[in-house]
Amino acid sequence: MEKNTEHTTHVHRDDEGDKLGMWLFIFTELLLFGMLFLIYAVYRFRNPVAFQLGGEELDVFIGTFNTVILLISSATVAMSITAIQRGNKKQALMLLGVTLFIAVVFLVNKYFEWGAKIEYGFYPGSEALMELGHGTILFFGLYYVMSGIHAIHILIGIGLFIYVVRQIQTEKIHSTDYIWLENTGLYWHLVDLIWIFLFPLFYLIH
Amino acid sequence: MSASTATASEHVSFLEYKGKYKGILGWILSTDHKRVGLLYLYTMLVFFSLAATLGLLMKLQLIAPGYTIMGPQTYNAMFTVHGIIMIFVIVVPGLPAVFGNFFLPLMIGAKDVAFPKLNLASWWIYIIGILVVLSSQFVGGWPDTGWTFYAPYSFRTPANVLPALFGAFILGFSSILTGINFVVTIHRMRAPGMTWFKMPLFPWTLYATAWIQVLATPVIGITLLLTVMERVWGIGIFDPNLGGDPILYQHLFWIYSHPAVYIMILPGLGVISEIIPVFSRKRIYGYKAIVLSSLAIAFVGYFVWGHHMFTSGMSGRALFAFSFLTFLVAIPSAIKVFNWVATMYKGSLNLQTPFYWAVSFIFVFMVGGFSGLTLGSLAANVHIHDTHFVVAHFHFIVFGGTGFSFMAALHYWFSKMFGRMYDRGWANTGWVVFFAGFLTLYLPMFGLGMQGMPRRYYDYLPEFHAGNIISSLGAILMIAGAAIVIVNLVRSARHGEKTSEKNPWGGKTLEWETDTPPTFENWEDIPSVEERPYEYK
Asked: CA–CA distance from A52 to each of A65, A114, A132, A139 (Å)?
């Protein structure tokens, strides 16, 4: 009697399972970007000179800056997990605030970076770009697609962070139940990792 | 679910269970894996009927050379939409979404899947994907590229391809999320005592399938997305005018779409492996061989995509490699066929509708498999590439494989799902008509293909007329059979003989130990497992 009339849905909680699910999702992301890297490799191999010249057009300073801050944000999100494990809610929120701020700064930088190129008339399908060789069209096509899809992932990350912050504020995430934060952290490391590969491929290799 | 609206779960079947929401909302917002499974079933039934009608109309067009009932553009649109719906909406989600959702937790002794909310979300994403695909009917007309969306035509054609591309992209998410859900469910939620090698075979094939869904679907996702961007912005990646390479599109497309064929067929193989031992009343022959061959198919299936492109331009060495690997896939598939036949050998056969579907499955699967070997050999492929031979092979494997096993599963588990038994007389009649129609429809296509009749044309030369007449009549017969089967099942689900018999077929797997139909959370106490499945003494 007592068992069954009150609530019939059992509460299923399995942190290991949740983490496994997140890792599987990360595999799918790796494959998605993996295919883009594959396309990049094929076209770089076919158009080495154009890709080198294209890379020189990109702003290494903004790229480096974004890389550094993104790495820092990965560290802060990892630290926020430790903070929540220790029950230090305030510190966790502060660290997540830093992460969120960095994510926004990353996108603002991206906005200026893209904006400058679009002002020059360098965007997919633009007349200025079409006058240049095939290799350059492909380089900038890939540049916009790959950094664009990466930026979408940053946006999703921002959404996740806002959600997690709300959950911490309302005590839904706390020192004994923090899988949402942990999985969001995993996701953020992935976004960071992909950028670690995008950055040298587009900005540094000459 | 809040305490006030919940009723006692004991002995209230999931069909009658009243949760937080009432009426239709109680279904489309339910996270119960069984209800989600049925939602998929109903959706598929609707869209299968639509796409099958398109198929029938195409066959009617082909009953005579020249213009019969439609022109070339309509025909192109029809085979495109027929393909897109059948592939992305029916056979790819197919068995996992319907029977995987319904029976995976029951068969491994769990109360639900690992992520019930995500599971419901998958269905919603699936519905949104379908609506986006079909919206092209109202803006700009149906696409005409074929379901493969080959570059560069897919971004040159004036027809509106964007909704189809984007819709298929969305459907991919649904597939990935279901895959993740199943892998985690199988890893984490098996009943106590159910070790990996005590798990029934259908969950095993779902496991192999789920891995393919996770590891292959992102590839089509990005490919379709790039094609969308190519069409909208002209990024150049697949456009030869801008330096891109359309062959690269084909590679990326088939890197997903070949493994996808195994997404379609593997769960079917699992269902057949469930049905054969139950209706032979004998232990399955070579349990481990079936498990390992499923995993082998899933693995090798990744490395054979090039056989779709034998005439597209590849190095000779690559051609040999892809051809060789393609032949390799035949080995694990054949292992399964031998195992099924060996299971039936000297068994005490119980001739029921699910068993009829299962044995006819073995037949069409073998015809499809052998014709696949023909296509996989390089010299023969050049001759029959892009002919009706390919259409016949494909439908034998995909429609024969997935369709027959789907029907087998539906009859096998029908009473468990609805608490009613189907009408056996009509079910058997439907099977006979369908099977006869199927063979009459597709067998002549092998001949037509060998003679050189290309696929995807609304017209043909007079010498192909005889074969096409037979084939079109077969289509009418098969659709009649399908109608009998479906009408019988729909009628039986509503008015059929009520049954609460837990185990009508004498099965040995866990789903037969639950109530019929199962209660809201399947079990009062999670069962524990001691011996391997299918232990008939």
From this structure: 21, 19, 14, 9
The pTM (predicted TM-score) of the whole model is 0.94
The pair of structure tokens assigned to B87 is 């592939």
What chain A holds in terms of domains, given with CATH numbers, is: 26-204 (1.20.120.80)
DSSP state of B498: E
Apex B369 CA angle, B364 and B372, nearest 5: 130
* Maximum Cα interatomic distance, chain A, rounded to a whole number of Å: 79
The pLDDT tens digits of the residues spanning A25-81 come to 999 999 999 999 999 999 999 999 999 999 998 999 999 999 999 999 999 999 999
Cβ within 8 Å of residue B208, ≥6 positions away: B262, B266, B294, B295, B297, B298
Q: Is B208 left (phi over 0), alpha (psi -120 to 50) or beta?
A: alpha
Measured CA to CA in angstroms, residue B275 lies from B221, B412, B508 at distances of 35, 7, 11
Task: Give B143 to chain A, closest Cα distance, Å.
Answer: 23
Look up residue A174 and give its DSSP letter: B
Smallest CA–CA distance, residue B399 to chain A, in Å, is: 28
Of A16, A27, A145, the CB nearest to B229: A145
Rounded to 10 degrees, the C-alpha dihedral B344/B346/B347/B350 comes to 90
Q: For residue B237, what is the nearest residue in chain A, using CA coordinates?
A: A138
For residue B483, the tally of other CB atoms under 10 A from its CB is 15
Residues from chain A that touch B176, judged by Cβ atoms under 8 A, are 25, 28
Quickly state the pLDDT bin for B168 (edges 50, 70, 90). Answer: very high
Q: Are B438 and B474 in contact (CB under 8 A)?
A: yes
pLDDT band for A182, please (50, 70, 90 cuts): very high
- The partner residue sitting opposite A6, judged by closest CB among B3, B218, B248, is B3
Q: Which residues contact B14 (CB under 8 A, 6 or more apart)?
A: B32, B34, B35, B517, B518, B519, B520
pLDDT digits (tens, 9 = 90+) for A88-126: 999 999 999 999 999 999 999 999 999 999 998 888 888
* Element of type H or E holding A126: none
| pLDDT score at B5 | 39
Question: What's the ipTM?
Answer: 0.92
Chain A residues whose CB is inside 8 A of the B229 CB are 124, 145
Task: Say whether A4 and B8 touch across the interface (CB within 8 A).
Answer: yes
B4 Cβ neighbours under 8 A, 6+ residues apart: none
| pLDDT at residue B10, rounded to an integer | 53
The tens digit of pLDDT for each residue in B30-39 reads: 999 999 999 9
- Binary contact (B237, A39; C-beta < 8 A): yes
Q: Is the pLDDT of residue A2 over 50?
A: no
Cβ atoms within 10 Å, residue B33: 27
Closest CA to B96 of B37, B32, B34: B37
- Residue carrying structure tokens 């096998």: B412
Put simply, the answer to whether A17 touches B237 (Cβ < 8 Å) is no
Report chain A residues whose CB lies below 8 A from the CB of B3.
6-7
Question: Which domains occur in chain B, in start order?
Answer: 28-513 (1.20.210.10)
Asked if B85 contacts B133 with a C-beta cutoff of 8 angstroms, the reply is yes
Q: Would an 8 Å CB–CB cutoff place B525 in contact with chain A?
A: no
Q: Half-sphere exposure of B276 toward its Cβ, with a 13 Å CA cutoff? A: 32
